[in-house]
Structures are given as C-alpha cells and as structure tokens.
Amino acid sequence: MTTQLTDAVAGSAFPVGELLGPPELVAPTLLGAMLMRSDGRAGVIVEVEAYGGSDDPASHAFRGPSLRNASMFGPPGRLYVYRSYGIHWCANIVTGPVGTAAAVLLRAVMPTGGLEAMRTARWGTIRQGPDRHLCSGPGRLTQAFGIGGDFDGLDVCNPDSSVALLRPPTSDLLARGIVASPRIGISKATERYWRFVMPQPSTDLLQ
DNA sequence: TAAAAGATCCCCT
DNA sequence: GGGGATCTTTTAT
Q1: How many whole angstroms separate alpha carbon A72 and alpha carbon A78?
Q2: Chain segment A82-139, per-residue pLDDT in tens
Q3: Which nucleotides of B are covered by protein (CB under 7 A)?
Q4: Which of the nucleotides in strand C have any atom less than 7 Å away from a protein CB atom?
Q5: Which residue is nearest to nucleotide B8 (CA to C1')?
C-alpha cells in the first residue's frame, strides 16, 4: 500500500522556476508535492507556512541577514534548516530570489515510504509512538527524515540530492480543498493567512 | 556579559 | 487538551 502510494505520487523533479516567487504564493503549490530521501524515506507535503519578505515581522529575516538565516537570502530550491527552541530542527524551502529572504516552512508530511526508517529515527527501537505522529509537525518531520543542520543550503530540486522535492504527476492533485489560516506559534502578523493545509490528501492520492 | 523570546514537542491528565 | 522542559539566537546593557 505504501509503496503503491509512493509510485502513484512520485513525479519529476520540482522545477526550480516554479519555486521562485512570493512565499505565500509558492507555499500552496507545494501541497501534494513529495519530499523524498535517497534512502527511500518519502512523504507527501500536507501542511506548509510562508515566511519572508522585508515586511513579515514573523520571519527570521525580518531584521536582516544573520549567520543563521543566510540560506533564506539564497537562491530558490534550497533548504533553510534552523534549530527551533534549542531542541528541534525545522526545514524550509527557499523561494528566492537571491538577496530576498523568502521561504516555506514544511509543517507536516504524510509518510508514504521508508516508514520503518522513520520510526527508528523518531523513537529508536525500544518504544515507539503512533504513526500519525511520525511527521505531523515541523520538528517531527525533520527528525523522521533525518534532516539536521548539515542539510542547510541543500538543493532539493536536484534529484540526486539526499533530500529531493518531487512534483505530483498531475496538477489537478493540487489546489483542491486547500485551507488557509494564520501561522502557528507566532505572535506577529497573525492576521495573515499564510498557513496552507490540505485536509484529506490520502483518499485523493491513493486512487 | 546577560537576559529574554521563541516558526515546538513530550508526557501526563 | 494543557503545562512544562529544553537551549539557541538575538538583542540590549
């Protein structure tokens, strides 16, 4: 079942040109895309948030470039990975262009491949949690995929990268039932509906 | 040099 | 569903 879903969704490499643009416009186009690791771990992106621009006070880059947020100012199609609350790693996909800080935070993924590796990465082999907690959260999905600070700046549009972004085979998988809402865990710019969720991806994508 | 805030998760109820 | 733990980064003194 899981491999079937992987095969059904796995498409071509995500064209970097389609990632270039305002993050709040690029973000919803990432829903339904697949995040894939070279070792087989894979999942469909179901929840994202847009960050960036010089006028987004919730963005890490609001006060300009720093050592941490450097990747946000880089070219589109790269990862911006940072440590959150001193504990977790969070992964963004940069939407560029160079010199402009813009990125889309990956908040949740529906696991479709490499489930065993994800469970081990999340909980080890002694005691494991429910599968619904594998990748449902920005810190959880990076742990499940084994994405850490080393992956900052990685080109996800290159299919040969250890983490690659794949486009769904058909565009009509996108933009159906997508819901926009305020971003989670922020205190500024909460009036912006820059969080995008695809409510029921499994039934659509499985058919 | 110090302090505060933070794009969160785990565990217990 | 709610409270506490956790530590890095940034900013102010």
Answers
A1: 9
A2: 999 888 999 999 998 999 999 999 999 999 999 999 999 999 887 788 999 999 999 9
A3: 5-11
A4: 5-11
A5: A85
pTM beyond cutoff 0.90: no
Fold of the domain spanning A2-206: 3-methyladenine DNA Glycosylase; Chain A (3.10.300)
Q: Two tokens at A33? A: 């895309």
Q: Is the CB of A12 under 7 A from strand C?
A: no
d(CA A106, CA A112): 16
Predicted confidence (pLDDT) per residue in A33-52, tens digit: 999 999 999 999 999 999 99
Give the separation between CA A14 and CA A17, rounded to whole angstroms. Answer: 9
CA of A160 to C1' of B10 (A): 35
Give nearest nucleotide to A107 (CA–C1'): B7
Phi and psi, residue A129, nearest 5° = -95, 180
Q: Which residues on adjacent β-strands are paired with residue A93?
A: A79, A104
DSSP state of A31: T
CA–C1' A192–C3 (A): 28
Residue A131 has φ and ψ, to the nearest 5°, of -60, -25
How distant is C1' of C5 from CA of A107, in Å? 22
